[in-house]
């Protein structure tokens, strides 16, 4: 099975992505985690994207596609992938679609984690204290939410039209969100 998990910052993509991938035996590919690892390792790619991430902007499509697509194609050879945080724009979705169709790697379902803005902001600021992510500060968070509204939210209509979309209330507690996703996928919790 191949799944996409999309949602605004703070909607729980990372947590749900980890749980679902473990439960379903899928390769968890978290776009932000892969980018943060490049930054932490000081690779040329990491140096190129560090400031962009710090501002909460999207890194160039070619960078993220180059990082993810080989991993996606490898995961498809196994039991499938769970992509969290990608795509983040209709352009990325279209590019990925072209590549995925060549490699038999199209998604089977897209899960949209939806939550009200005040819940998102509260969660991100709580996470900032625990995890110390440098882009979890108030200004960058505001920009990340704006980037979500402008670039990523249009994906909801895009995937609804393709008949792939499932909307999940991500303001529920973590276990309820996981259960609801497993149920809509027809998997026992
Ligand atoms: P995340 O961990 O998903 O919140 O992502 C952290 C940051 O990584 C984002 O604010 C972007 O700067 C960058 N990023 C993650 N995924 C993508 C993507 N699909 N396209 C472009 N930039 C991304």
Structural description of this entry:
- There is one protein chain.
- The chain has 189 residues and is an alpha/beta fold.
- The chain has one domain: Rossmann fold (3-Layer(aba) Sandwich), CATH 3.40.50.
- It contains nine helices and five strands, in the order E-H-E-H-H-H-E-H-E-H-H-H-E-H.
- It has helices spanning 13-24, 31-40, 44-55, 61-77, 90-103, 117-131, 138-152, 154-161, 174-184, and strands at 3-6, 27-30, 81-84, 109-114, 165-169.
- Helix 1 crosses helix 9, helix 2 packs across helix 3 and helix 4 runs parallel beside helix 5.
- The chain is globular.
- The two termini are 16 Å apart.
- The model has no long low-confidence stretch (mean pLDDT 96).
- Bound molecules: adenosine monophosphate.
- Residues 9, 31-32, 35, 52-53, 56-59, 64, 85-88, 92, 135, 144 line the site of adenosine monophosphate (AMP).
SSE succession: EHEHHHEHEHHHEH
Bound molecules: adenosine monophosphate
**Strand tally:** 5
| Helix and strand composition category | alpha/beta
Q: Given the C-alpha coordinates, what overall shape results?
A: globular
How many individual helices?
Answer: 9
Name the average pLDDT.
96
How many structurally independent domains? 1
CATH class placement: Alpha Beta
Order of the strands making up the biggest sheet: 2-3-1-4-5
CATH architecture name: 3-Layer(aba) Sandwich
CATH topology: Rossmann fold
- The CA-CA distance between the termini, in Å, is 16 Å
Major sheet characteristics:
5 strands, parallel
Radius of gyration using CA atoms only: 16 Å
How much of the residues is beta strand, in percent? Answer: 5-15%
Percentage of residues in helical conformation: 55-70%
């Amino acid at each position: 099975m191949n799944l996409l998990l999309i949602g605004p910052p703070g909607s729980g993509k990372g947590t749900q992505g980890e749980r679902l991938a473990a439960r379903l035996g899928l390769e968890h590919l978290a776009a932000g985690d892969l980018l943060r690892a490049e930054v932490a390792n000081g690779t040329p790619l990491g140096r190129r994207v560090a400031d962009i991430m710090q501002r909460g902007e999207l890194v160039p499509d070619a960078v993220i596609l180059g990082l993810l697509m080989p991993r996606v194609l490898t995961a498809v050879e196994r039991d499938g992938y769970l992509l969290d945080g990608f795509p983040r724009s209709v352009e990325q979705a279209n590019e990925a679609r072209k590549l995925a169709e060549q490699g038999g790697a199209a998604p089977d379902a897209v899960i949209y984690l939806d939550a009200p803005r005040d819940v998102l902001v509260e969660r991100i600021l709580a996470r900032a204290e625990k995890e110390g992510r440098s882009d979890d500060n108030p200004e960058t968070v505001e920009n990340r939410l704006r980037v979500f509204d402008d670039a990523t939210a249009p994906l909801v209509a895009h995937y609804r039209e393709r008949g792939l979309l499932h909307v999940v209330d991500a303001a529920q507690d973590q276990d309820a969100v996981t259960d609801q996703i497993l149920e809509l996928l027809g998997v026992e919790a």
